[in-house]
Amino acid sequence: MKTDSILGVLKEVLITLGIAIVIALLLRVFILNTEVNMPSMQNTLFAGQRLLVLKTLNNFNFPDRGDIIILRPPIAPKSEYVKRLIGIPGDKIEVKEGKLYLNDIPLDEPYIKQPPNYTFGPFIVPEDNYFVLGDNRNNSTDSHTGWTVTKDNIIGKVWLRYWPLNQFGFIGSYPIDEQLTGE
Questions:
Q1: Which of 38, 75, 94, 135 has the greatest CB tally within 10 Å of its CB?
Q2: Among all residues, which ones are annotated catalytic?
Q3: Which DSSP letter does residue 91 get?
Q4: Mean pLDDT per segment of 10 residues, for the chain of length 183 residues?
Q5: Is the torsion defined by CA of 59, 65, 68, 72 positive or negative?
Q6: What is the pTM of this model?
Q7: Structural domain includes residue 3
């Protein structure tokens, strides 16, 4: 009788351990843990904050305009960048007089630290490329410096800030598409 109960407990422990391993592997496939290292996303994100990112798998969970994303830039250093997705293939981007224009429509961007002090464009986002900007426009290495990011180099969409605990919360998207359609 004791052997049966020991085997039963051992079986339960192995099942629980197996389930935990499967859950951990699934989380590694779908979720990335990262830290903000640069000031380019101020005043939305700050250095030292820890984030959970929903990974982009093919077209599943692909970010929209206005989402904050993690990407591998095509420039050195090749460390991950945190930026806001602004333009998709075919979009016309222009920065003039402190304002960002997307497809000739000036965007309302309450999330930026300050208006850009540079001019850029007009620029048409190439096929299979995406245009990204930091929210700290005047202190950000991003697409206005001459590069775009391919779909394959978009790692995922920032989902949750979990550290520091007093700033815990979901990271939402800003509805850029609504500004373009007038909805």
A1: 135
A2: 40, 83
A3: -
A4: 77 89 80 88 93 79 90 84 96 97 95 95 96 96 95 92 93 87 69
A5: positive
A6: 0.85
A7: no
